[in-house]
Write a structure and sequence with these properties.
The protein is α+β, with helices and mostly antiparallel strands. Helices cover 35% and strands 15% of the residues. The chain is built from seven helices and eight strands, in the order αββββαβααβαββαα. The protein has helices spanning 4-17, 72-81, 94-99, 116-121, 136-143, 166-186, 196-205, and strands at residues 27-32, 35-38, 54-56, 62-64, 87-90, 127-128, 151-154, 158-163. An eight-stranded mixed β-sheet has the order 4-3-2-1-5-8-7-6, sandwiched between helices. A hairpin with a 3-residue loop joins β7 and β8. α1 packs parallel to α6 and α2 (72-81) runs parallel beside α5 (136-143). The protein is globular and about 50 Å long. The N and C termini lie far apart (48 Å).
Length: 216
């Protein structure tokens, strides 16, 4: 059986190789038993040391290891929202960050249902109003949202995604970056979107959260 912390290190190297983590930006975490292991502050995601992660409890108390990323409240909030979540990824990837600077498509999702893979792998992705990086209030507001989601865009900041494994979180982060690139490429043109009748079976088959319709 693979070690989740080693999986996290491999995921960081993969995301960095894809160009989704410029410099020392972004942070990753994995939940293992009663502990949350978070990349330390200032970590280059291409060089994560599985033995050098910060150790927190689900409430966000720092238990051991180096100082965690200041954005750890986002991670612990998503774990508290979804007991099945096992990994959280926060990036400053170019296209998803650009999409976070645009008006949201709807209350439940910043990104419209452009492709079946966005619905299947990510699901509705709310836009959270801007807050300074590390602001615990933003994490609290995200945790309190009254509809299901596994990913969000932080306004003028970037994406954060949760997954039931490290690999599903990575897949969701990559898919969110790709659909954001499509949205930007479309510009001010009016695209065809998936209809509610097309979304419903995908959401059901892949247990993907999609409860919001088109904007009023």
């Amino acid at each position: 059986m693979s070690d989740p912390r080693s999986e996290l290190a491999a995921a960081g190297a993969h995301l960095a190789a894809l160009g989704l983590s410029p410099g020392s930006s972004g942070n990753l975490s994995v939940r293992e038993g009663p502990y949350v292991y978070v990349t330390p502050t200032g970590t280059d995601l291409s060089r994560i040391d599985p033995a050098g992660l910060s150790v927190l409890d689900p409430a966000g108390t720092h238990l051991d290891g180096p100082k965690p990323s200041k954005e750890f409240p986002l991670h612990t909030a998503l774990y508290r929202r979804d007991p099945a979540a096992r990994a959280v990824i926060h990036l400053h990837s170019r296209h998803a960050t650009a999409a976070s600077c645009l008006p949201a498509w709807s209350e439940h999702s910043a990104i419209p249902p452009l492709t079946p893979y966005f619905v299947m792998r990510v699901g509705q992705t709310p836009l959270l109003p801007y807050a300074a990086p590390g602001d615990s209030g933003q994490a609290e507001r995200m945790e309190a949202l009254p509809f299901p989601f596994r990913a969000a865009l932080l306004q003028n900041h970037g994406p954060v995604v949760a997954g039931h494994s490290v690999s599903t979180a990575v897949d969701a982060a990559v898919e969110l970056e790709e659909v954001s690139a499509l949205l930007l490429a479309l510009g001010d043109r009016t695209p065809r979107l998936l209809t509610p009748e097309e979304i419903a079976p995908l959401a059901a088959k892949y247990a993907s959260p999609w409860t919001g319709g088109p904007p009023a």
